[in-house]
Amino acid sequence: MPADNGPDFICIGMQKAGTGWLFDQLQFHADFWMPPIKQMHYLEHELTRTGTAEKFLRIARRNPDRRQQRLSHRRDLDGRDVAFLEQYVSYSGTSMEVAKYISLFQYKGDLLSGEINSGYSGLGEDVISELVQRLPKLRAFIILRDPVLRAWSQVSMAYRNGRFDICLLENRAEFRSYLDNTPAIKKVGYPSRIVERWRRAAPSLEFRHFFFDDVASDPAGTRLEILRFLGGDPGKPSAQITADHNRKASDQKLELTEPIKTTMIEHFADELRACARMFGGRAKTWASEYGV
Questions:
Q1: 203, β-bridge pairs
Q2: pTM above 0.85, yes or no
Q3: Which helix (H) or strand (E) holds 84?
Q4: Which has fewest Cβ within 10 Å: 90, 113, 194, 203?
């Protein structure tokens, strides 16, 4: 499979840092074909898991004229999407191969395409290196968020999904232990380590970072900068989606109390300092506002 038929870009997160916003901006933009699954997680696992693709494919086959009936916040599926899903489902239970991942993007035609997947922030250096060797024109980027507020948003999401015991907030020592031992936070909560690993594994990769702070304060300007980086036309609309569209705005969020905030600042103090040194800009503000 020629490299030009593979993904043009990969966004590696961060989780809870605007990746859903970005996916909406791209999936409805005329210059892009985005896979119908926002996060395939294909490159993360030795054996391929295709549960989400199987669900989408069942829906598409059951009622082709109303493929979106149960797929909220997605563009209408078409023949390319069905072919993509069928190929991806055929990988179920097989070993991960970078070449097979690349071939999934053959359905993009002459459009831009890629994957937005916060899980790829934790990829091993061997996978990153092979990916970039096979795709020398690949562009990669990350949307950075204040580690304290990002982790708190992740805690709120876990609470909404019934995976966080709110009683932990009553004991700072227990909550500190939660921060130390929760795999999801350890894996994606330290942006300086993530970017350092990607740069070390692929020093020739065209890699950029953007800030969630800018997504929140200037979504139109941030959309423009990201589209320019990816090669899309910022002047084209994303269908009826506005630049400030946020389908998660109404999600319930836990109140961040001062004692818990202090615990989180202490936990992420070294990372806040590392981010200020590595990224500058908004990251310097994070550290200064917390007094670290």
A1: none
A2: yes
A3: helix 79-90
A4: 203
Rounded distance between C-alpha atoms, residue 30 and residue 37, angstroms: 18
Query: Would you state the structure tokens that stand for residue 283, as one six-digit string?
Result: 């990251």
The candidate with the shortest Cα–Cα distance to 120, out of 112, 131, 109, 110, is 131
Q: Does residue 116 lie in a domain region?
A: yes
Residues 6+ apart with CB under 8 A from 133: none
Per-10-residue mean pLDDT for the chain, 292 residues long?
A: 76 93 95 92 92 86 56 74 94 95 95 94 94 96 97 93 91 93 86 96 96 97 98 94 86 89 96 97 96 92
Residue 222, class by beta-carbon neighbours within 10 Å (0-12 exposed, 13-18 middle, 19+ buried)? buried
* 254 domain-assigned: no
Q: Is residue 14 part of a domain?
A: yes
Domain CATH number, residue 140 = 3.40.50.300
Give the residue ranges of DSSP H helices in 105-239.
Answer: 125-134, 147-160, 172-181, 183-188, 191-201, 212-217, 219-230
The 8-class DSSP code of residue 107 comes to: G
Residue 66 phi/psi, 5° resolution?
-135, 55
pLDDT at 73: 64
The answer to whether residue 166 sits within a structural domain is no
Residue 162 is encoded by which pair of tokens?
């019934």
What domain range includes position 35? 3-45+96-146+191-249
> Within the chain, how many helices (H) and strands (E) appear?
13, 4
